[in-house]
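Re: the 217-residue chain
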Amino acid sequence: MQRSQLAVSACADGIWAMAYAILDRTRLRGSFHNGVLPLRVGDRAQRLYQFSIHAPYLELEPSILVEGTVYILPSESFELVTDGPTGPNSLEYASKLAVAPLARLAVGPRDFPLRFHGHDDSMVLRSLDHIDHMTSECAEAEPLDDGYRLTFQARRGLADDLAELCAIYRRFFPWATATLEFDGPDNPAVVCITGSAGLRERLGNALARASSAQARR
């Protein structure tokens, strides 16, 4: 969930639900990156999945993957969660009312058709710090239909920092596209970040937080 609320969380994707059912998060220390993005490639509907945990805990397999249960819930009281990065393409739902399961499905690691990957939490934190730093340095933000065009004033090392920013987006946000326009060290540089319908709102919130932080200094 992208926002804090007291609710029953659910999703409209069985593989995503199964990942939560079989991962023993009581033994996991660190982050669990997960999600699914519906895509359309030509006339074909596809889904992009991400399931990654802090790398050292992959060594605990198969003990960190356990038998679990997927609950099938009635849909009447659920609402689509659209304030996440995928916006209206989200497959997340939330119900503010208690619900009783219609059925329970026992699942285990052998039922899961994908695999968990590993990441370095320290690298993730450094990457998020770099995003925050560069967001605060943005001199102008032009909203686009599906993202933002960010302009940065020239300085030494700017090209390398913006190239790293684009690389971070490509690595950690596969549903986003980040492109760099750079015309020499003495000219402003531009990064265009576009993607799913919810990306513009997410970037807008980050820019607003950066602006507020600068105003308090």
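The chain has a mean pLDDT of 87.
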